[in-house]
Amino acid sequence: MQGIQTTTSEREQTRVERIGAHSHIRGLGLDPTTLEPRGNSQGMVGQGKARKAAGVILKMVKEGRIAGRAVLMAGPPSSGKTAIAMGMAQSLGSDVPFTMISASEIFSLEMSKTEALTQAFRRSIGVRIKEESEIIEGEVVEIQIDRSLTGASKTGKITMKTTDMETVYDLGNKMIDALSKEKVIAGDVIVIDKSTGKISKLGRSFTRARDYDAMGADTKFVQCPEGELQVRKEVVHTVSLHEIDVINSRTQGFLALFAGTHRSLIKAELRDQINNKVSDWREEGKAEIVPGVLFIDEVHMLDIECFSFLNRALETELAPIVIMASNRGITRIRGTKYKSPHGIPIDLLDRALIISTGAYLADDIKEILSIRAQEEDVSLAPAALEILTKIGSETSLRYAIQLITLSNLVARRRKAAQVDVPDVRRVYTLFLDEKRSVQFLKEQNSLLIGEDGQIGGGAGVDAMEVA
Ligand SMILES: Nc1ncnc2c1ncn2[C@@H]1O[C@H](COP(=O)(O)OP(=O)(O)O)[C@@H](O)[C@H]1O
Ligand SMILES: [Mg+2]
Questions:
Q1: Does any ligand 1 atom lie closer than 6 A to the CB of residue 21?
Q2: Could you tell me the distance, in angstroms and rounded to a whole number, from the CA of residue 54 to the centre of ligand 1?
Q3: Residue 466: partners with Cβ closer than 8 Å, 6 or more residues away
Q4: Does domain 126-286 correspond to CATH entry 2.40.50.360?
């Protein structure tokens, strides 16, 4: 497609999210037709109303019916807001983008707040592009690779065939690497995308079914393709607007070298150009927009400028669904003197659908704790689970979950295979929960350093609680 590129042979480095705390969550645990929450499903327990509401929103996202909407998940700490968002992410289709940011990271990137938000928005909008591409599809007859003495450069040849023809192709360095990465050997049926150099293995050829050496338990056998080796095929791929931005700003000549990675600023003109191109493609039936989800956790950490940016950005034609989460009550909006529910300006709140999450019942806490114990491969004695449940109800679910790992360490030190009550007691006394920590501060205030740098001179806990 002239002008704007949408693919690159280099793979984008994806950001690694720290999702350890939610690794047990594999979906929202809803009945697929009625969207009713199931008791304990896909790692999800309780919080039925919020899960169902999330399911309804998800359904609308999947049908591509809504875009540019805002959803707020409001509830006390450790009531499952982030967990539900992760559940939504898992149930979106594989080509629907889901971006997760924590509001405070906007302030720590080496770019302006609005650039960071713009990038987050554009990461969350997919463009599904149909393209004709030329591929080579056939059975590998032979691969021959010559390494130079130093091993630095490689050349080679690959012989491929269909039932009707056979051809030898020259291999460059990159193709050789791709072949060895996919562990392609003679007898495999493969597809090479000529424009990107991407290689995918379809399976082993039936003619090699007797080659036991090269077979694993899950070897898939396919027919050797017929007809021409090189064919044109329509392929569909989905990229985010942000990826298109990055691919095209990199090719902007040598200055792009200094601009560095995708963390750098992308010019507004380039974005306009890309938006125009994408809307041309849509008219020509070559592309579709796939609005995804942008999840902004701890949204009360955004300031008034970010909020007005959000308001405006939600109104543009290319906007994703923005899901926000906050655990604040009536609190000051950052960057102003004014207070507002959840620390979010009223005009933004007004356009948001609000889902609330509440405290858990003891039974739910117990079930979540046992799911987590399983996830972390920890065996809990029934009495230990009881006491952890009690701790979870009286302090917070997150604190109780953390104690699982810690008490397991203690149990392992005494070479026990199972965590028992004394192990939990031990870590409970070693690590304070939030309430006990505040209590400790109150008692020890005279010994701690305060805001003015003086021991015991700080305004102390009371001031902290008001702030
Ligand atoms: N309904 C639930 N089902 C399963 N696990 C949950 C549920 N709610 C919360 N959790 C788990 O409890 C911990 C705290 O929840 P989290 O979603 O981080 O709370 P919040 O974001 O509301 O502060 C996380 O490890 C989360 O995965
Ligand atoms: Mg959270």
A1: yes
A2: 15
A3: none
A4: yes
Q: Is 46 in the pocket of ligand 1 (CB under 6 A)?
A: yes
Give me the pLDDT at residue 69, please: 84
**Over residues 247-272, mean pLDDT:** 63
402-412 confidence digits (pLDDT tens): 999 999 999 99
Residues with Cβ < 8 Å from 37, sequence gap 6 or more?
28, 29, 30, 31, 44, 47, 48, 51, 52, 55
β-pairing, 70-74 with 321-326?
parallel
How far is ligand 1, taken at its centre, from the CA of residue 342, in Å?
Answer: 19
Amino acid symbol at 395: T
The CATH code of domain 362-437 reads 1.10.8.60
Q: Decide which of 205 and 317 is more confident.
A: 205
Cβ of 37 closer than 6 Å to ligand 1, yes or no, is no
123 lines ligand 1 (CB under 6 A): no
The torsion of the CA quartet 371, 372, 374, 375, rounded to 10 degrees, works out to: 120
This prediction's pTM:
0.74
Kindly tell me if the per-residue pLDDT of 379 is higher than 90: yes
Domain ranges of the chain: 40-124+292-356, 126-286, 362-437
**Quick check: CB of 352 below 6 Å from ligand 1?**
no
- Could you tell me the CA-to-CA distances from 355 to 10, 54, 57, 174, 358 in Å, in that order? 40, 8, 10, 49, 10
- Is residue 38 lining ligand 1, measured as CB closer than 6 Å? no
User: Cα of 325 to ligand 2 centre, how many Å?
Assistant: 7
Q: Is the pLDDT of residue 298 over 90?
A: yes
Rg of the chain in Å (alpha carbons): 28
Domain 40-124+292-356 belongs in CATH node 3.40.50.11540: no
Mutation probe of ligand 1 site: the residue of 398, 404, 434 with most atoms within 8 A of C-beta:
398
Read off the pLDDT band of 212 (50, 70, 90). Answer: low
Buried b (16+ CB within 10 A) or exposed e, 264-299: eebeeeebeebbebbeebeeeebbbbbbbbbbbbbb
Neighbours of ion ligand 2 (CB under 5 A): 82
Phi then psi dihedrals of residue 141, to 5 deg: -90, -45
Query: Going by C-beta distance under 8 Å and a sequence separation of 6 or more, which residues neighbour residue 35?
Result: 52, 55, 56, 59
Max intra-chain CA distance, the chain = 89
Torsion angle of alpha carbons 208, 210, 212, 214, nearest 10°?
0
Least confident of 346-350, 382-386, 455-459: 455-459
Residue 118: CB within 6 Å of ligand 1? no
